[in-house]
Amino acid sequence: MMRIRAGIALTGVLALAMAGCASEGDPADTAEPTSASPSESASPSQTPSTPPPTPTTPGQDAEDPADPATWEIEDGELGPIELGDDFDEVVASLPGDWVNDDSCAWVAYWSAPDGTYLVSFQRDAEGAGPVIAATVESLSDRSGIGPRTEDGLGVGATREDVLAVHPDAVEVDSPIEGISFLRIDDDDASDGSVFFQYADGQDGATRVAVTTLETPAYEACA
């Protein structure tokens, strides 16, 4: 019995000695702990994210005089064209692709390169003077083209679209049969009104005009 107990005791001593060697010399026990991957350690609030780009929309900060698609329709203004400004000075300030010729000297106009819409402005036909109207009109069946209001209204906007934003808009008849308007008035009479023009049988506005006239001229050069 003594030999058996001695054998057990010796075996225990050897096991402790081997364990001590492993704790002192095993690289696996002395290596630095491996860091967790970002997906394992980062919380959702710590995960970096890139915000989506802000789309360019018509408005004062984005307006390009050479690109009426970036212009904003607002009280008394269509992009850089402002009611009351000298007509000839406005013509001179715009890029060279605007047309103002002797056949219709009181009107200047610009056509979109893809032929979808036209922008124009006018003075009184009797002689030099201020801008009295500025208009964007559709030349195609496309909607959502050309200058827009800050609320996104423009050519193609339905009556429901306009009334949803401007419930005080006024229904106005036109002297031209088959044409009617929704008029949005401004508190300042010098800023005129914004008119959305509708043709019978069409849901979307075919023209949008900013003018001090009682109703927009149907054909400025007629």
From TrEMBL:
Which portions of the sequence form the region Disordered? 23-72
Q: Does the keyword Signal apply?
A: yes
Q: Which UniProt keywords apply?
A: Signal
PROSITE patterns per UniProt = PROKAR_LIPOPROTEIN (PS51257)
Q: Which residues cross the membrane?
A: none
Give start-end positions of Low complexity composition bias: 30-48
Would you indicate the residue range of the signal peptide? 1-24
Biased-composition ranges, Acidic residues, are 61-72
Q: Which domain of life is it from?
A: Bacteria
The keyword Signal belongs to this UniProt entry's keyword annotation = yes
Q: What is this protein called?
A: Lipoprotein
Q: Which organism is it from?
A: Microbacterium barkeri
